[in-house]
Amino acid sequence: MSKIIIGIDPSLTKTGVGLIRVDDRCVISFVGARTIYTNSGDFMAKRVLDLHSQLGEIIDDFRPDIAAIEEVFVNKNSLSSFKLVYGRGALMLSLAIKNLPVYEYSATNIKKSVTGVGRADKNQVMQMIRYLLPKADFKTEDEADALAVAICHINSFAGD
């Protein structure tokens, strides 16, 4: 029985969403990828509502079985980190409302899972996604990162 995993690279401005299918033999295939955009000029409440609504539509379109999301990292600009938490919270709520089990992974674990190097740059991640999912049609680095989150989940549970 195959399962669809939705991977999410959270951001308040542009959230990457990537979906892969995994079969009983742990063979993965590309299902879809999208970027959710919010308007930076809108009030915070409107932006988190947009994230929630758009992710809900994607979930309804693709019917994933499992969700994986990147953990928040604290950067030098604490205000930016704080805003990211709002967005990530809206995304997590959307997943919970749709009754999806949610797994969280650090950026280092995601990069290491896909490239073998925990400090890989975005270009290395995109190259590996193209290699691992040759039919993947992603348009942004955020979508590639989201596919990497989904692959990280598969690699984390491949032995189960």
Describe the fold and architecture:
- The chain is built from five helices and five strands.
- Helix 2 (78-97) links the parallel strand 4 (66-70) and strand 5 (102-105).
- The protein starts with a strand and ends with a helix.
- It has a five-stranded mixed sheet with strand order 3-2-1-4-5.
- It has helices at residues 44-62, 78-97, 107-115, 122-132, 141-156, and strands spanning 3-9, 14-22, 28-37, 66-70, 102-105.
- The model has no long low-confidence stretch (mean pLDDT 93).
- It is α/β, with parallel strands linked by helices and 160 residues long.
- Helix 1 runs parallel beside helix 2 and helix 4 (122-132) packs across helix 5 (141-156).
- The longest helix is centred in the middle third of the chain and has 20 residues, at 78-97.
User: Based on CA inertia axes, which overall geometry fits?
Assistant: globular
In percent terms, what proportion of residues is strand?
15-25%
**SS-based structural class?**
alpha/beta
List SSEs in N-to-C order: EEEHEHEHHH
Mean pLDDT: 93
Major sheet strand order: 3-2-1-4-5
